[in-house]
């Protein structure tokens, strides 16, 4: 585990802050974030902002199939968003994709590990980092083993934020 509080850093903000609305302390939502995931993203952003006392930006969702999507992406996204991807959050100058496992029904350890790793892998396709919500019935050791396995299999230095009940953990690849 790593200390999640990073004091003294400059706050990175996305462009066009005039298109964001403040929905809670340190939580800003793009008016272009109009998806079925909006409420879940806001819920996770509120949790992250509350636990870190740092701003969380819920980014716009711009359909890649729109004719003007490239131009819109250049205006509304911070530099560095993967082409045709829509990360959920901008936090500490990094792109984060949120995933929830609260509705998972599996109980077998091997299946749970694969499901956790699959969700994290999906998040990494959208963004450099992941924020995953894990239900309390999943043992912490399973969570750590699954996440560390996924991080160690990656060549990049990702960060995984874990909402486990009312706790927030930050897991990243160990320094070599």
Could you characterize what this model shows?
This protein is an alpha/beta fold. The protein has one domain. The chain contains 4 helices and 8 strands. It has helices spanning 38-52, 69-76, 109-126, 140-152; strands spanning 20-24, 27-30, 56-58, 89-91, 94-100, 129-134, 159-164, 167-172. It has an 8-stranded mixed beta sheet, with helices on both faces.
Order of helices and strands: EEHEHEEHEHEE
Mean pLDDT: 90
Number of helices: 4
Secondary structure tally: strands: 8
Largest beta sheet: what is the strand line-up?
Answer: 1-2-3-4-5-6-7-8
N-to-C terminal Cα separation, in Å? 15 Å
Largest sheet: 8 strands, mixed
Strand content: 15-25%
Summarize the structure.
The protein has helices at 38-52, 69-76, 109-126, 140-152, and strands at 20-24, 27-30, 56-58, 89-91, 94-100, 129-134, 159-164, 167-172.
Question: Top keywords for this entry?
Answer:
single chain, 176 residues, alpha/beta, eight-stranded mixed beta sheet, 8 strands
Write the layout of secondary structure elements.
Blueprint: E1 20-24, E2 27-30, H1 38-52, E3 56-58, H2 69-76, E4 89-91, E5 94-100, H3 109-126, E6 129-134, H4 140-152, E7 159-164, E8 167-172
Parallel strand pairs: 2-3, 5-6, 6-7
Antiparallel strand pairs: 1-2, 3-4, 4-5, 7-8
């Amino acid at each position: 585990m790593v200390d999640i509080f990073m004091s003294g850093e400059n706050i990175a903000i996305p462009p066009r802050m005039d298109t964001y609305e403040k929905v809670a302390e340190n939580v800003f939502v793009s008016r272009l974030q109009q998806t079925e995931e909006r409420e879940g993203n806001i819920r996770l952003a509120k949790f992250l902002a509350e636990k870190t006392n740092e701003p969380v930006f819920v980014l716009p969702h711009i359909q890649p199939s729109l004719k003007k999507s490239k131009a819109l992406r250049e205006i509304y996204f911070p530099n560095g968003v993967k082409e045709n991807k829509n990360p959920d959050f901008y936090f500490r100058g990094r792109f984060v994709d949120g995933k929830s496992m609260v509705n998972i029904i599996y109980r077998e350890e091997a299946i749970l590990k694969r499901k956790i790793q699959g969700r994290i892998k999906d998040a990494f396709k959208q963004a450099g980092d992941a924020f995953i919500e894990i239900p309390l019935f999943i043992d912490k050791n399973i969570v750590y083993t699954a996440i560390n396995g996924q991080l160690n299999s990656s060549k990049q230095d990702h960060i995984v934020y874990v909402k486990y009940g009312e706790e927030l953990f930050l897991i990243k690849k160990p320094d070599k």
